[in-house]
Amino acid sequence: MSEDFQDRRSFMRLARVLDVKVVDLDANKEAKGQTHDISADGIGFITDMSLDRDTNLELWLYIPDNAEPLYTKGKVVWAKMVDSNAYRVGVRLNKVDFAGISRILRTIA
Known about the structure:
Helix content: under 10%
Oligomer: single chain
Shape: globular
Strand order of the largest sheet: 2-3-4-7-6-5
Order of helices and strands: EEEEEEEH
CATH superfamily: predicted glycosyltransferase like domains
CATH class: Mainly Beta
CATH topology: Thrombin, subunit H
Largest sheet: 6 strands, antiparallel, barrel
Distance between the termini: 32 Å
């Protein structure tokens, strides 16, 4: 790792795989995916939908706690193709969600 690298994240990321529904608000398209990592202010996920930087999203995280999916909004910070029909995406959430993270933490055994 480069000495110049500086992690600017405000919150620790949890490696957690959850199903996610993604709606591109700019293009009015919907896709499914799986999270890669989650924090109080961001989500990393993999999907088959190509997304551009600064795309506005609605997301529904399916947490295995028998409650409604966790709904949130965010904006694409980065996206890259990782396979012929798979994209890894980093999203900054519009607001910090400690309650949502708490729900996720309670499902980790």
